[in-house]
Amino acid sequence: MAFQHGSKTYVSVGGDDISPWTNTSELTRGAQSHDLTMYGANSEVHGGGLKNGKFTCGGRYDTTAVTGTRAVLNPLVGTTVEIIRRPEGTGTGKPEQTFDGLLVSYVETNPVADYVAWSAEFTVSGDVADTTQA
Fold first, then answer.
1. Cα torsion through 93, 94, 95, 101, rounded to 10
2. pLDDT tens-digit profile of 44-97?
């Protein structure tokens, strides 16, 4: 069995590498479910529909970063941008996920007894391309 450490994950949003400020990311894939049940059935019958997805990421806020998450993500709220995620890091033969995402929320959290954190949520728009890095 080969396990992969999450610390090598790479995330790019709109061409900007936000990995240095990111400590969590998650790509959720799903599909619509349509009820196809007809009269006389004893149980529901379902058929799959269009695929959908959500991408979330978050991390620590860096006050010195002129290209940090606030500068990159805050202006993108409400727009669709290309996202590249490399769950095993960058390198030949490693997986890469490329997709467009609509940034639906960017949040900065300021707890009194901890560091400032940020999080972002994207709605996947279109297909996710699963490829291998060259």
1. -120
2. 999 999 999 999 999 998 877 677 899 999 999 999 999 999 999 999 999 999
6 compared with 123, residue with greater pLDDT? 123
Backbone angles phi, psi at 97, to 5 degrees: -115, 125
Phi first, then psi: what are they for 4, rounded to 5°?
-120, 130
Compute the Cα dihedral for 28, 117, 100, 35 and give only its sign.
Answer: positive
Indicate the pTM of the whole model: 0.90
Residue 41 lies in a domain: no
Q: How many domains does the chain have?
A: 1
Flag whether 1 is in a domain. no
Task: Reduce the DSSP state of residue 92 to 3 states and report it.
Answer: coil
Domain, as residue range, for 76:
6-34+46-132
Tell me the C-alpha distance between 38 and 105, whole Å. 40
Q: Quick one: average pLDDT of 105-109? A: 96
3-state class percentages of the chain: helix first, strand second, coil last, to nearest 5: 10, 55, 35
